[in-house]
Specification:
6% of the residues lie in helices and 43% in strands. The protein has 487 residues and is mainly β. The protein folds into 2 domains: 114 residues, Sandwich (Immunoglobulin-like), CATH 2.60.40; 320 residues, 3 Solenoid (Pectate Lyase C-like). A hairpin with a 2-residue loop joins strand 20 and strand 21.
Length: 487
């Protein structure tokens, strides 16, 4: 047995030595070429002067023998700020040594970009061509492409006097933006804010954001890259903080605004309920890691607006005086099955009374994934505390209520309907995180609205469509539009 063991060991060593001697040869032949996972690597609009996250593409050797790459370099030496690493080697003025790619194998090429500041209000297109030269003389290229946007950087800015920020170029906010008490910050139509992680907008004074349908005011996170191939970080919640109106803040207005993908959307702190704290019209508050809109002891008015997809509540009211007209409040948050309801309203928090003077919803849609998306929390121990709510001409996703004078001419979003819940809307692409809350023809929201209220408040929907063109008004912020007829 001892001699057999020695013999087997010698044989194994010989086989290993033979395998090592039979190394693959990289004799690149005249017709050999590489294959690439992309002909063009495109980066979305990136912020000038700031490095991007790393992107990559693959290089494949589909030949039945090894191939050698003699050089990788930028055509005409024009890198445009792109930086490249091929199989662990950084490309400066070209490869410092040949790279071998075994047969049926691949290499990964990493790409980053720090675009130069161009002092331009408009995005600037950048393009560089990465040239691969094989030892057989064959040259192949991959195009690197991006749009670069200059920004105005704001660091821990306090607005201490009345100020208007125009839409000349986007603003990049670090360490939050604060509007001090006594000051008014006006945001002109088309203004775009990128908020860095953990930055937000705090308003002790007054905020007036006056967008238009064509040029909304946009507040979002500063990540412009992709989380996955078809999912930009901009469609993922918790990218920045949100907007907070403190107790000292009154007279705020958001018109034609798009606030999305924050840790929270809009928070209204407790204040004098006899004074209007916030008016939101023609706006979107979407995809939040907390509440889309929460208000405590505040007087607010929300009209012709979409409040959608929150890890907690789309709308949370604790006391106060709130009116919602022609709003779509939709809870289809995709990231957490323990999401809160579309709407929660209460007249207390713990053992503290917060009188709910009014919570009225007129011509609205309030729905979501579950079979009950509306929670009214009345303090049983203190029946004298105001708890005044009302739902009128709305589509409600909650068990049907009868003999309640505060619920008038409402439709019920339930399983037996021709369409229900997400079926009321035209587009839910969960893979790409795209949601379109336009109505489908069979939705019970179609024709459900009180036309007199429509004509008094919002004769056109959030997209500018005349609501009464077909002789009836629909609940929610979007009027149903028939699909164009094919010619």
């Amino acid at each position: 047995m001892k001699y057999l063991s020695i013999l087997l060991t010698v044989l194994a060593a010989a086989l290993l030595l033979g395998a090592c001697m039979d190394e693959e040869k990289f004799d690149t032949r005249a017709g050999d070429r590489l294959a690439f996972s992309k002909d063009t690597l495109r980066l979305d609009t990136v912020i000038s002067g700031i490095g991007t996250p790393t992107a990559f593409f693959m290089v494949y050797n589909r030949n039945d023998h090894g191939v050698s790459i003699a050089d990788v370099s930028f055509l005409d030496g024009r890198s445009q700020g792109f930086r490249v690493n091929v199989d662990g080697m950084y490309i400066n003025d070209g490869l410092s040594q040949t790279i071998d790619c075994p047969k049926r194998d691949s290499l990964r090429v990493f790409v980053e970009l720090t675009p130069a500041v161009n002092d331009s209000d408009e995005p600037v297109e950048l393009e560089a061509k990465l040239l691969f030269t094989l030892t057989n003389g064959v040259q192949q290229q991959v195009v690197l492409s991006a749009w670069s946007q200059d920004v105005v950087v704001l660091r821990a800015l306090h607005v201490t006097a009345d100020t208007t920020l125009a839409a000349r170029r986007p603003y990049l906010v670090y360490d939050s933006l604060t509007v001090d008490e006594g000051a008014t910050l006006t945001l002109a139509a088309g203004t775009l804010f990128y908020f860095h992680s953990n930055a937000g907008l705090r308003v002790d004074g007054t905020l007036c954001a006056e967008g238009t349908m064509e040029r909304p005011v946009v507040l979002r996170g500063d990540r412009t890259d992709l989380m996955f191939e078809n999912q930009p970080y901009d469609r993922v919640s918790n990218q920045w903080q949100g907007i907070r109106f403190t107790a000292a803040s009154y007279g705020n207005r958001l018109n034609w605004c798009d606030v999305h993908s924050g840790t929270y959307g809009i928070v209204c702190d407790s204040s004098d309920v006899s004074r209007l704290k916030l008016r939101i019209e023609n706006s979107i508050v979407h995809n939040m890691g907390g509440d889309c809109l929460s208000a405590t002891d505040s007087k607010i008015m929300v009209g012709n607006s979409q409040l959608s997809n929150a890890a907690k509540c789309c709308v949370r009211l604790v006391g106060g005086d709130a009116e919602f007209v022609h709003c779509t409040i939709a809870q289809f948050y995709p990231f957490d099955g323990l999401r809160g309801p579309a709407l929660e309203y209460s007249n207390h928090r713990g053992e503290v009374a917060h009188p709910l003077l009014r919570a009225h919803f007129v011509n609205c849609i309030i729905t979501g994934y579950s079979d009950d998306e509306i929670f009214g929390l009345q303090w049983d121990g203190h029946p004298e505390t105001d708890f005044n709510y009302g739902f009128y001409n709305s589509l409600l996703d909650t068990p049907e209520v009868v003999d309640d004078a505060a619920i008038v001419l409402c439709q019920w979003d339930r399983s037996g309907n021709p369409v229900k819940r997400e079926g009321n809307f035209t587009k839910f692409n969960l893979d790409a995180l795209l949601f379109d809350f336009s109505l489908v023809e069979k939705s019970l929201a179609v024709g459900a609205a009180d036309a007199s209220v429509t004509l008094s408040y919002y004769p056109r929907d959030r997209r500018g469509t005349a609501r009464m063109a077909d002789g009836q008004a629909d609940a929610g912020c979007y009027e149903y539009l028939p699909a164009p007829k094919e010619v």
